[in-house]
Predict the 3D structure of the following.
Amino acid sequence: MIITMKKDASAKELERLREGFDEKGLRVNVIEGEEYNVWGIVGDTAHINDRDILANRCVANVQRVSAPYKLANRMFHPEDTVVDVGGVKVGGTSPIVVIGGPCSVENRDMICRIGEEVRECGAQMIRGGAYKPRTSPYAFQGLGYEGILDMAEARNRTGLPIVSELMSADKIDEFVENVDLIQIGARNMQNFDLLKAVGHVNKPILLKRGMSATIEEWIMSAEYIMASGNPNVILCERGIRTFEKYTRNTMDLAVVPIIKERTHLPIIIDPSHATGDWKLIESVSLAAVAAGADGLIIEVHDHPDQAWSDGAQCLKPEKFQELIRKCRKVAEAVGRQM
Amino acid sequence: MIITMKKDASAKELERLREGFDEKGLRVNVIEGEEYNVWGIVGDTAHINDRDILANRCVANVQRVSAPYKLANRMFHPEDTVVDVGGVKVGGTSPIVVIGGPCSVENRDMICRIGEEVRECGAQMIRGGAYKPRTSPYAFQGLGYEGILDMAEARNRTGLPIVSELMSADKIDEFVENVDLIQIGARNMQNFDLLKAVGHVNKPILLKRGMSATIEEWIMSAEYIMASGNPNVILCERGIRTFEKYTRNTMDLAVVPIIKERTHLPIIIDPSHATGDWKLIESVSLAAVAAGADGLIIEVHDHPDQAWSDGAQCLKPEKFQELIRKCRKVAEAVGRQM
Amino acid sequence: MIITMKKDASAKELERLREGFDEKGLRVNVIEGEEYNVWGIVGDTAHINDRDILANRCVANVQRVSAPYKLANRMFHPEDTVVDVGGVKVGGTSPIVVIGGPCSVENRDMICRIGEEVRECGAQMIRGGAYKPRTSPYAFQGLGYEGILDMAEARNRTGLPIVSELMSADKIDEFVENVDLIQIGARNMQNFDLLKAVGHVNKPILLKRGMSATIEEWIMSAEYIMASGNPNVILCERGIRTFEKYTRNTMDLAVVPIIKERTHLPIIIDPSHATGDWKLIESVSLAAVAAGADGLIIEVHDHPDQAWSDGAQCLKPEKFQELIRKCRKVAEAVGRQM
Amino acid sequence: MIITMKKDASAKELERLREGFDEKGLRVNVIEGEEYNVWGIVGDTAHINDRDILANRCVANVQRVSAPYKLANRMFHPEDTVVDVGGVKVGGTSPIVVIGGPCSVENRDMICRIGEEVRECGAQMIRGGAYKPRTSPYAFQGLGYEGILDMAEARNRTGLPIVSELMSADKIDEFVENVDLIQIGARNMQNFDLLKAVGHVNKPILLKRGMSATIEEWIMSAEYIMASGNPNVILCERGIRTFEKYTRNTMDLAVVPIIKERTHLPIIIDPSHATGDWKLIESVSLAAVAAGADGLIIEVHDHPDQAWSDGAQCLKPEKFQELIRKCRKVAEAVGRQM
């Protein structure tokens, strides 16, 4: 940690600050500059908050040198984490996984039928929302527990693991019992109580990036889950919010090599939410595979125009199958199985 | 609602779509254009989701004409809502309120001492966090229930209502019992289960704008609370996330006249989080008052450099008092009491 | 064009507005709604500015239905434009092109040497800046005309066409005489006088997207060039400015299918500026090829640590060669030559 | 300047980098950390580009301690710069100035008539565009030189100095001869050739912030003008581009205290472009005055619905007069004349 100190700082202020570091067992090295002095703090600074240091009026700037995350950090855990989701491996050199299914579970028949379709298209997992985060209180809010049971039935029929979003800690038991991969949605990426709650369960977690979360904040949210005891976190990029409104969000594909350099966790891509437009999904999926993603999660519906939510970004099964076929060629071209 | 229809749409698709509107009692007017046809949908479209219409492959674009919110809408509720917080009125022509206090409650003495200081400076309410949303799992997470009881004691000693952030629905009872104004933080603005939960209680809610929430999404989150039965919502702008990193966030002051035009709810401003820098707070507070805000919420600490969180954006009591004194002059200049 | 009209608009206002449309030969269709009335304007509205209509106090909202660009519009020009750059074809079904070279020309030997290296690696064109847009007035500003002559010499030695950035219309003659593909940089994307100037020359133009330009604004800048008489425009995505600071910019790869749907112009990708980090370039380049881009423009330097500018985002020739080799496999996988 | 060095850097790399600093007369202090080593570079680093250092593969991060600007820097020029615009003083303790007038000059009568109106309302300068940066090539591009002469006539009739935007260096002579305050627009904030050109003239410059320019980049553009010899720069905030689309841009009012802390230059606010909506202008103007701005530039038109450009954000003279009247009260409340 590097602290830029104002030249006019009083000896008393500096002394108090230095004592604080001494107490924490940290060493302070001082460089005298022309406009500022600089303190280099040596030792384990992960537990020090940058902004707390900045609260000292004598401090002009604070710069962290080492990352604020430990458990997710590639530096201390060089080998790739491979997450097992009901028998399907995600990450490392495992084949690229595809997760397909509707935005919302509409009824048992529908999710079982689409589940079978996505399996036949080549997907390894089924997605489907039973609890839906909707901008409007007047929009369909999901089938709730009934939808979770419908998902479980789709797993029984297809043999594929299922993914669904958990919105509230009080539903955690039904998810642990029934769901193979518990999704934390973008809007809850910094719902820290929920992160701690899923850190205590023995199921893998799919952690979506928040709409305006920095890469570091996203990794810190994974760190929350891991620090609570659950090491099985899969990260999912789903686009960030920018000034550009042609797409629903702006897909940030550079996160793929960045996450792989900085962490040891698997990363998958959600082109449906990133673009919001079914016509763009194939192109962006091919790009994600080429960039090195460990998987794709894609919304599929057999009648998008009748979908209860997000039909505009749903692929029909035949398009989904074609997408997988094309992605497999790209995967092969970059030396990856799929 | 205005739907732009592709010229090559099949008769069958169009018929099915039209039938859907008929069933909902909506009227469809068609304008034949050169490159597109346009459908104007007349009737109450608040329950129709734009993106669901967009799911039809024959649809090129959907534009909402009337706002998707009803209860918060000024059009249907022209008079200002005035929220009563433990006897202090907020909104309408009530005097501008000032809420002061530390980021976190550190212990009972501290919050009582600072509570008394902010009252003497001229504040009408005390803020203090007992449950803290922190980016890092290794940072101080707040005193929890003990902190809430400390806040309650500060109210007893000062007679001022207290404000604190609720992060999880399972703590709602202790908030209803002890806290006068329940804050929903920026990171939970779209934690819809939490919004519904506070919609069922009989206490006023302070709803902070999410870091990347549009004004419409923010109002829709207020609509969630109101639709669940709680009409007492105060909106709070705390800066949005932009490319500019000199400040912690970018304060969006134009929301003041916008919220007042579109809704009937009170709006207050949080210059501490908007700027992240105590040196900028006075200037931005004066601006907020001049713009027409109904209140200010400001972090105050008697020893910012020893604050357990957010010291960099805390004012010392003497600065806070000076700020209130200056703001009063501006309030008077714009015809408002304070 | 769809205009949402306030219900309380006066007859006089409405009449005057309607007369304005009549005079332009446009037809007005009115839909009476419950909260608003809606006017559909039928006819060629490309010359009407949305915001001018919005200036009428009776107007609540204006929504454009057809695109404001004509010459760049795929709707009126369905076949792909293929741009010929000194014999190298870009766009349509032409092989994917690679443009390589340093950020800045440092001297004649250097650009000739690197030019030969990038040719041997498999590039089809050489890039190099002689006039450099630098944030600081104290930074190296480029060799100027001497640098352009050095570039021309590199073309003579390698036989490859050359690309360089034009910053000011008064240098246009030396560019027309010496440069094969004239680049308009991101900072000048809305320097409309410069756009008009290059619209009058008989050389192809590489138009970079502005740092915060919407896709529509970017296409409109191409329209400026085309409307002045030059149809040979290649678009280049180089990342947009967002809140995320881990990368220099955020690459927006969804533009590839969007540009191909909305326009008939070729689009290439600049992963060097999009990421600002040489370690991320390979991954993002592979993604761009998979997404369907018509080319790549990449900074290459044989001694990045001694580069006079942008060394942090330069590839060494051996990395560049490996990147091309890998990209060729992906190109083949998506049915494209390279 | 603080450089974070990877632990695995080779002795040779480090030596070469250190020699580079030695040659520039800079001193290097090394702090050995646990995960990284840190170099503190002491001396005048204004001429060193951060990104050039980052080009060394052994470097993990570069952090600038002192600002990259010198001439604009408050640290080296503590007293406020007061700019004289045709006899009207801007900055320091001068009265707050108001600049009013139409977006575009439409004809001589119109600009003279509106010029007289804004003077009577209490403005000290007249604005009017003769060369207009328009997104569409099909939109009105301004009257050109004729418009400049019309502006000059408005000055003759009213006695008020005039402000107009220069878009291209080849028109600089007509601006020097006729215009009192030469505006560089947001889209040209990093048109460095234009900045250098206006750095050579003996007229004050109004430098608008670019739509996505950081505060530092904006100050660096002022530094360009000043480094070319022209110290008379007035900065103008006109809103930045964000995800929020309710307003045309997002006004960033915190820049007022920031610019005053970091530089000695005057800063004025443009609420017309910041909001894009005449209904929001009064509120935002009052806020700007309260925040400490040195002036306002506001679009005024007597028939906004017939304005040739930007009518939606134009005030009518009576509203403009009322705004000035209200702003004066706020100015007085914050101890400023107006």
